[in-house]
Amino acid sequence: MKRLLIVCTAILLSCTATPSQKPSGMQENADLLVSEPQGGTDEAGFTIIKNEQEFRNAIKGSFGLIDLKKEPSVNYPKFPRNKKVILYHMGLFRSGSHRITSIKNTSVKNNILYVEVPATPSGGMEIQVLSNPWFIFAVPSDYQFTSVELKYSN
Questions:
Q1: Most buried among 60, 82, 87, 149, using CB within 10 Å?
Q2: What does the alpha-carbon distance between residue 80 and residue 31 come to, in Å, rounded to a whole number?
Q3: Quick check: helix, strand or coil at residue 128?
Q4: Any residues with CB less than 8 A from the CB of 73 and at least 6 apart, and which?
């Protein structure tokens, strides 16, 4: 099982530790909103998206051009209310086949948000191009964490 640990720095001023928060698996409470194989950063990391404007700015390239002054002509996902929305950059990969297609499970333990995603099969023919996959997902607003770790499973 591959593991990737991202440690949060000053970007999460609103997140605090909650000692009484118990580990919880809440697959039904994690929503995958957007997933793209290109357009992310070279370094893995995450940001919490705080409002509709930040959300639209993050996804605007994925759904064509969005004019924020007009009603969009494409049907993009709505910004979830009463949830914590996370933009996660997976970093740089040497093949073009990386993309999150679903979230199996989420849990928080020791201030780490664990996000279980399907393992990407490797081997065989792959597109040989540098890629920077990213995805946006939502978890319950009461999740308190200072880092995010992806867990790959079959």
A1: 87
A2: 9
A3: coil
A4: 64
